Amino acid sequence: MAHRPNREAYFKxxxxxxxxxxxxxxxxxxxxxxxxxxxxxxxxxxxxLLSLGAGVQSSTMALMAASGLLNPMPNAAIFADxxxxxxxxxxxxxxxxxxxxFPVHIVTAGNLMYDSLSERVSREGRRYISNTMPxxxxxxxxxxxxxxxxxxxxxxxxxxxxxARELAGVKERDPRVRVVSWxxxxxxxxxxxxxxxxxxxxxxxxxxxxxxxxxxxxxxLKDNGYPTPPRSACVCCPYHxxxxxxxxxxxxxxEWARAMEFERQLQSAHLNESVSNRFEGTPFLHDSLVPLDxxxxxGGPSKDRWGNECEGMCGI
Length: 316
Hints:
alpha/beta, 10 helices
């Protein structure tokens, strides 16, 4: 009869091996990684960089990698801070960073909410406001529309790519693949997958590879003793469902008030006829075209608007 190994002893040994591996990695990356770029970029081996939004999917991806369930171990993670996330995201990010055996770089292109309200002056002396958010518009002819969105590209994608280039030592017009970008899109949002437009980088979706949906990510987190991460989305994001607006209203009254005030200031800024590049209509954060302080939020199942955020960087 063939010898059958003791199941409990096997899994105990496996846990000890993973623990030893994580301990070694923590020691290895306790130093400033930017000073060891040359050690990471050997031959044509690309760096594996995880795009961390600090939401459910990207947090699950990071923690699964830290547990050795997703390979290879990422060299680093990058969190693009819009400076407009709810406080619960920043609190969770602080905890998450301490659980990971690889460094987390925080980058920013500025404060999205502040920049969306700031009046600027062109070289020709023209006063204008930079429109980046996909707000809902009530036009003068009674029709409704949606503003062109570039906030994800400007405040998420570009800062992450810039840091990736720096970490991987990417040179101008580098034809070699130097970076593998891990993006936390789950199977229920597979339509948000997009290939990289840069010759030096390729996108990878580990949760898709593992066949995990958002619900399965939540289950994995719970089964492994982790708290439920918050939705990674700006306080003022027009893609919020009614459930998410209600959560903000009841769990963080100050941030709810901040969102309402932002909407009022945005409307005031774009009603100023002396400012060019204004929205073609009155902007609202809720698709009912009713101000947040007066909108009637309905509970229960909500319409999913995140499919419109096709960059795959927000809400994860």
